[in-house]
Amino acid sequence: MKCVVCENKKVSPLWRELKIVKCDCGHIYYDQNLSKNQIAEIYTGSYFNGGEYSDYLTDKDVIRKNFLARLKTLKRFQKKGDLLEIGSAYGFFLDVAQGQFNVEGYEICTEAATYASTTLGLKVYNADFLEANLNKKYDAVCMFDCIEHLTRPDKFIEKISGCLKQNGHLLITTGDIGKIVPKIRGKKWRLIHPPTHIHYFSFDSLKKLLEKNGLTVVSKKYPGVYRSFNLLFTFLLKRRVTSLPGFFWFNSFDIMEVVAVKS
Ligand SMILES: [Zn+2]
Question: Which domain holds residue 168?
């Protein structure tokens, strides 16, 4: 696979056993071609239940708290208008944002998309954003903890740029492999898990990809997040835990929240 940031084909192995490579430009990625079927298999209902997340629906309140903070960030730049979320999961962010924006979402996990449209009554399409025929432009596009999962983030960013209005904003969150925790942890960094995480951006490589597509970074933050004890113990015990009440706040300063404007 050639590098999605600089289109270079010459890359060197970083962690050979994980098939993760590093390009000369600094971008790090899982260098394997996944078929559509392999990808579809990852994002079944179990993905949000005991997969990468402990139990998305049980942790609803904690997740909503994090989304309120992200909405606050977006509203510093974009107060209202048409908002599109890519990878909208169960629709909790759209639900939080819908009082202030006209919201729509794309989600490939059928179970999650169905919950969002049926239970929450949101306009969420169970479809691949890249294959969608868009007939309008948006004031804001959001992508939370999603870009690292995409096989072709370059195509997504290109399409997002094309569907943003002039002066519209993109709000994106993902891990930043250039920060201290990933540098210390190396391949043991909690966000290194191919094949669900394919692209490991640093702020610099993300900025490069955005700029290539006419998007200028206007804000970069490393906010902390609320996490449930369910999620923590699922991670520690390596089995699904859903019965613990409560949550905690923590910040490992390795999740970047980036806002870019379409020029
Ligand atoms: Zn590169």
Answer: 11-262
**Max Cα-Cα span within the chain:** 49
Give the distance (Å) from ligand 1 centre to CA of residue 212: 13
User: How remote is the CA of residue 231 from the centroid of ligand 1, in Å?
Assistant: 34
The CATH number of the domain where 132 resides is what? 3.40.50.150
Asked if residue 119 is part of any domain, the answer here is yes
Domains identified in the chain, total number: 1
Asked whether residue 1 is domain-assigned, the answer is no
Q: Report the separation in Å between the CA atom of 184 and the middle of ligand 1, taken as the mean of its atom positions.
A: 23
Q: What are the pLDDT digits (tens) for 78-109?
A: 999 999 999 999 999 999 999 999 999 999 98
For residue 110, report the distance from its CA to the centre of ligand 1, in Å. Answer: 33
In a domain, residue 181? The reply is yes
pLDDT at 154 over 60: yes
Q: What is the 262 CA–ligand 1 centroid distance (Å)?
A: 23
Separation of CA 91 and ligand 1 centre (Å): 33
3-state secondary structure the chain: CCCCCCCCCCEEEEEHHHCEEEECCCCEEECCCCCHHHHHHHCCHHHHECCCCCECCCCHHHHHHHHHHHHHHHHCCCCCEEEEEECCCCCHHHHHHCCCEEEEEECCCHHHHHHHHHHCCCCEECCCHHHCCCCCCEEEEEEECCHHHCCCHHHHHHHHHHHEEEEEEEEEEEECCCCHHHHHHHHHCCCCCCCCCCEECCHHHHHHHHHHCCEEEEEEECCCEEEEHHHHHHHHHCCCCCCCCCEEEECCCCEEEEEEEEC
